[in-house]
Amino acid sequence: MRNWVLITGCSTGIGRALVPLCREAGWGVVATARRPETLSDLPAGEDLRILSLDVTDPVNIAAAATACEGLPLKALINNAGYGQVGPLELLRAEELRAQFETNVIGLHQMTNAFLPLLRREPGARILQVASMLGRLSIPLAGPYNASKHAVVALAETLRLEVGEEVAVVLVEPGAIQTAFRETLTKAWGDLPERARGTRYETILARYLAVRRHQGERFAMDAERCARKILKALVAKRPPRRVTIGRDAFWVGKVKALLPAAWWERILRRAYGLR
């Protein structure tokens, strides 16, 4: 019998890249997305199940867990998420709440719903996809920074609590070539209108340019990132943390070495906040 893995957020990016890689490695994959029609082009096979899954919907999560009860589920990859951006003083409480509902509460609900299934399989593991922004923060991404810091804390705590039964792997990618940056503006809503006439009007335009430049210069291909995650998935002794991308590695090192005032000055200048 093959081992099975459930992956959230498979419509694009890292989640989408993981599906064929896991299948090639001999795993059965439960590929999930809020809109399952986005997965209709995946080649059918006995090693693939497609489920509609909204990680903010407890009823939907429970139904997904029930659908997986008959599978030898050996891994869960909590990958679903999005980035809410904007200056904190213009951010509405409901926008921060929505960011946490998907990136944090949704991840937590998925973990708790599938832990009983994972405990049945020796060597089972949970991979929690955070970000390099779970270790440091950048301007104008406060909600996303905060959500990924929370994911890091939840993963480290979960490892202490259940790590001897089910391994917990924290995945910390840097910039990845995905549709993530395109979704930034979709999450803005009427933020540009709120920013009009304030110091943030030009800063937001600069922010998009900075993120685009960083993506072109530093971003890793989603498939290369997925291969790093697959390595942790199949490892006999799964790692505690997987840092993916040169930017994720070196930015953390630089931040640790520089005086805080210097680090903050660099970020303010880079994002036009001086």
If you had to describe this structure to a student in words, what would you say it looks like?
The structure is a single chain. This protein is of the alpha/beta class and 274 residues long. It has one domain: Rossmann fold. Helices cover 50% and strands 15% of the residues. The chain contains 10 helices and 9 strands. It has a 7-stranded parallel β-sheet with strand order 3-2-1-4-5-6-9, sandwiched between helices. The protein has a two-stranded parallel sheet with strand order 7-8. Helix 4 links the parallel strand 5 (125-129) and strand 6 (167-173). Helix 2 runs parallel beside helix 3. The longest helix is centred in the middle third of the chain and has 26 residues, at 93-118. The relative contact order is 0.13.
